[in-house]
Amino acid sequence: MAKGLFIAIDGTDGSGKTVQSTRLVERLRDMGKQVEILSFPRYGNPSASFIEKYLQGHYGSAEQVGPKRASLLYAVDRYDDADRIQAMLDQGTILVTNRYVSANKGHQMGKIKDPVEQRAFLDWLNELEYGIFQIPKPDLTLLLHVPAEIGKRLAEARDGEASKKDIHQADLQHLKDAEAAYLRLPEIDTVERWERIACVEQDRLLSIDQIHERIWSKVGPLLS
Ligand SMILES: Nc1ncnc2c1ncn2[C@@H]1O[C@H](COP(=O)(O)OP(=O)(O)OP(=O)(O)O)[C@@H](O)[C@H]1O
Ligand SMILES: [Mg+2]
Predict the structure, then answer these.
(1) What is the pTM for the complete model shown?
(2) Could you give the CA distance from residue 192 to residue 185 in angstroms, rounded to a whole number?
(3) Could you tell me which residues are beta bridge partners of residue 1?
């Protein structure tokens, strides 16, 4: 049976995940490939209801909830979709996701300062998501790297500066910590295969096309 390909696209807020995942899927579809796109968390779905409450501050600040408790909420949302994801891959579909386990790794590991504790958390999280919950693992995780401030500005330009923000979006320090964690992950994560895509060079944000080509240079070789 043909086995599909699973590409996760991640990065801090406003880094272009939605734009680039859509673009990648369009290109694959134009080639006649069988492609699906999914976005996590699945806001509006019952499985994401605790995430929504967390992001609204119902359980306290992001720091108060801490990395492990928050990670569980996101992992359950993926677990709820795991069989469907596996079925798509078994049918040979190319699956592209906008955020995945990688987002727990960046956003939740970023809450931890000590590098040794970060590694311990990463081991715990890989066991939770891929061991206990047995959710399918991406073949490749692409990290769109846009410095936190620039991403925050892009998201604000998109939504309007006065738009209501969740407890992650509203906190520049959280976004900077997440950025730093994301940047460590390609080096320290031995379970998932990461590729960093630099989206800003010499303080200049590359164009959507340029970033897409960088993504394509990583995905193209994986196509059979
Ligand atoms: N390379 C780029 N150059 C200019 N504008 C861009 C670029 N990439 C994305 N944008 C714009 O920046 C905004 C944020 O992009 P997008 O919504 O894809 O980011 P995101 O990572 O999905 O954000 P969020 O984390 O909030 O979901 C959008 O308005 C998008 O059109
Ligand atoms: Mg988005």
Answers:
(1) 0.96
(2) 9
(3) none
- Ligand 1, residues at Cβ distance < 6 Å: 11, 13-19, 154-155, 158, 205-208, 211
114-158 pLDDT per residue, tens: 999 999 999 999 999 999 999 999 999 999 999 999 999 999 999
Let me know: does 37 contact 17? Beta carbons within 8 Å: no
CA-13 nearest atom, ligand 1: 25
Closest CA to 109 of 158, 160, 143: 143
> Ligand 1: which residue has its CA nearest to atom 10?
16
Mapped onto helix, strand or coil, the DSSP state of residue 165 is coil
- Give the pLDDT confidence of 40-99 residue by residue, as tens digits: 999 999 999 999 999 999 999 999 999 999 999 999 999 999 999 999 999 999 999 999
Q: Which atom of ligand 1 is nearest to the CA of 206?
A: 1
Which residue ranges form the domains of the chain, and what is each CATH number? 5-222 (3.40.50.300)
